[in-house]
Amino acid sequence: MHRKVTDTTEAVDAFMAALAHPCKAEVEVLRGIVTGVDSGIAEGIKWNAPSWRLGEYFATTHLRARQGIGVILHLGAKTRAPDQRPAIDDPDDLLEWLGPDRARVAFIDMDELRRRQPAFEAVLRQWIRLL
C-alpha cells in the first residue's frame, strides 16, 4: 500500500536534516514517542510534514503553529467523519477537537512535551484503536 519514497523513515530523516524550525528537537522527540506506542507504527512524509501510519496515516506533525509544536490526529487520509467524535479518555485535556474525525495536541516546549508524554501516549493508544 505505501510504496512511495516519502513513506519511509529515510524520507523523514532527510526532511528533518533540512528542517529549519525552532522546535526541531521537539519534533525528533515526537517521532520517538509516536513510534514507541506500537511496534507496527511506521513514519513517512505526508502533507509536507513527518507523519505516522498503521495501514493509513493517522497522525501528522503540525509545523505551522505560531508557538510550540503539535500533532494532528485524524482517522486516515480519506475523510470518513463519524456522526460524533469518538470517546477518548483524556483527563489531561490534551485533545483540541477540530471535527468529529480529527483533533490537535499541542505542546508549548520540550518541558511540556516531556511532562505530558504519558498522557499523550495514552491518547495515542486509544486513537489507534479507532483505525
* Alpha-carbon distance between the two ends: 16 Å
**H/E element order:** HHEEEEEEHH
Strand content: 25-35%
Low-confidence stretches: none
Record the strand order, biggest sheet: 1-2-3-4-6-5
Q: What would you call the quaternary organization? A: single chain
Mean pLDDT: 91
Radius of gyration: 14 Å
Shape from CA axes? globular
Count of DSSP E strands?
6
What is this structure, in a nutshell?
This protein has helices spanning 9-18, 24-37, 110-115, 117-129; strands at 42-46, 49-54, 56-62, 69-74, 96-99, 102-107. With 131 residues, it is an alpha+beta fold. Helix content is 33%, strand content 26%.
What does this 3D model show about the protein?
A hairpin with a 1-residue loop joins strand 2 and strand 3. This protein has helices at 9-18, 24-37, 110-115, 117-129; strands spanning 42-46, 49-54, 56-62, 69-74, 96-99, 102-107. The chain is globular. The chain is 33% helix and 26% strand. The chain is built from four helices and six strands. The two termini are 16 Å apart. The protein has a six-stranded antiparallel beta sheet. It is α+β, with helices and mostly antiparallel strands and 131 residues long. The mean pLDDT is 91.
